[in-house]
Structure prediction request, 101 residues.
Amino acid sequence: MLIAQYPLPPSTNYVGSHSEHYQQSFQVNVEDDEEPSEDGKFTIDGGYIPRIVFLDSQGNLRPEYYNKARGEKYKYFYPSADQIVNTMNDVLKSINSKSEL
Prediction:
């Protein structure tokens, strides 16, 4: 599952060019005040927005899936659709090899 804290910008044409990723994921857009905050699990490297995190089928945060193009700061920020797709490819490889998500 992909949790985006902002809508993916239409200018990226993400849906049209990467529809196979959309078909294989469940995506939720939450506003800052809608984010569950009781245990702080979604603020793993800060509470900045926008950011995208991935969850498994049980709703557990999967912190190993982040934007590898970024440094250690703001790892869950994705300035481009290609960077989102790269991480989604990592997630899909894991699903296909382990059936864990």
Q: What stands out?
A: Helices lie at 14-17, 19-23, 81-98. The CA atoms of residues 15 and 23 lie 10 Å apart. The first strand starts at residue 2 and ends at 4.
